[in-house]
């Protein structure tokens, strides 16, 4: 095998490995999202039927959320939020009761900590950014994976992503949401375990938010483009759900690296996240460089011998 072939094969092997790693972990994270989505579908169907048939009151809806949360260990919280008087027309009777605020709207946030569940009313649902978990599905009428954000759970700020599903009545009107929160600690753990050829992995959204990073966790929630303007091309491709390969400088390590990105696809979910594997070029061509170090001195000796034979 010639050096050119070996050089090319080293690159091809690194690309194939990176693709395999990225696809495998992207599918694993898609699986986490699918679990949350299945839970939401169950809650959605039960609550919508209850609203239309009058078979569940608000207290029973909260108990349904508690049961769903207990059966799904991967979730931090589940919740529902209804438009004014959209559930049963009794908002005035529930002002400041469990899972309600001063409006009386049904908006319980059921979370768990240390195997205990707690119920509080949702907050900030009318504020852009903090309330995207409600405002985005209300606007798009699509199940949405929300950009990571900090949210207070049981008095503690944690980084989460929300999967939220709009509740649509028989007339096609938006009447509320059901949602589930997924802690990014679990996803960061998945990313930390991915070290393709001594490199690292990361998850980037189509808006450029760093969801997880295996090289530098301090970069989580930072904007990928703000780290390096050249990352704009990567983010644009992620936003378009593209699978792609790029060789460029890593924003996390500063090394020229092979970077392979695979979209994270979840059934029925409007999302544009991507799982990326980054391998330093020195690791990509490690096999080539090792062989070169061994064979180059030999080749030099052979050439010198040939020259000596020819001229002496």
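Sequence proposed for the structure above (312 residues):
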């Amino acid at each position: 095998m010639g050096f050119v072939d070996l050089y090319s094969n080293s690159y091809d092997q690194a690309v194939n490995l990176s693709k395999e790693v990225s696809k495998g972990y992207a599918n694993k994270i898609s699986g986490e999202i699918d679990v949350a989505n299945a839970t939401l579908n169950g809650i959605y169907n039960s609550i919508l039927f209850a609203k239309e048939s009058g078979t569940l009151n608000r207290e029973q809806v909260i108990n349904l959320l508690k049961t769903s949360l207990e059966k799904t260990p991967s979730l931090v919280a589940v919740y529902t939020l209804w438009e004014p008087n959209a559930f049963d027309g009794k908002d005035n009777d529930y002002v400041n009761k469990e899972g309600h605020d001063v409006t009386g709207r049904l908006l319980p946030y059921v979370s768990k900590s240390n195997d205990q569940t707690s119920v509080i009313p949702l907050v900030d649902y009318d504020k852009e950014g903090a309330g995207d978990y409600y405002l985005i599905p209300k606007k798009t009428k699509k199940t949405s994976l929300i950009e990571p954000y900090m949210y207070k759970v049981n008095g503690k700020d944690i980084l989460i992503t929300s999967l939220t599903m709009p509740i649509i009545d028989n007339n096609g009107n938006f009447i509320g949401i059901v949602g589930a929160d997924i802690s990014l600690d679990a996803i960061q753990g998945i990313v930390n375990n991915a070290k393709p050829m001594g490199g690292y992995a990361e998850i980037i959204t189509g808006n450029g938010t760093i969801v997880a990073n295996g090289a530098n966790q301090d970069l989580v929630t930072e904007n990928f483009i703000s780290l390096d303007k050249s990352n704009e091309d990567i983010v644009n491709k992620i936003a378009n759900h593209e699978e792609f390969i790029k060789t460029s400088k890593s924003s996390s390590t500063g090394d020229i690296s092979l970077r392979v990105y695979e979209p994270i696809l979840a059934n029925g979910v409007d999302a544009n996240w991507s799982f990326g594997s980054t391998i330093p070029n020195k690791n990509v061509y490690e096999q080539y460089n090792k062989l070169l170090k061994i064979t180059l001195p030999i080749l030099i000796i052979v050439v010198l011998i040939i020259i000596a034979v020819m001229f002496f």
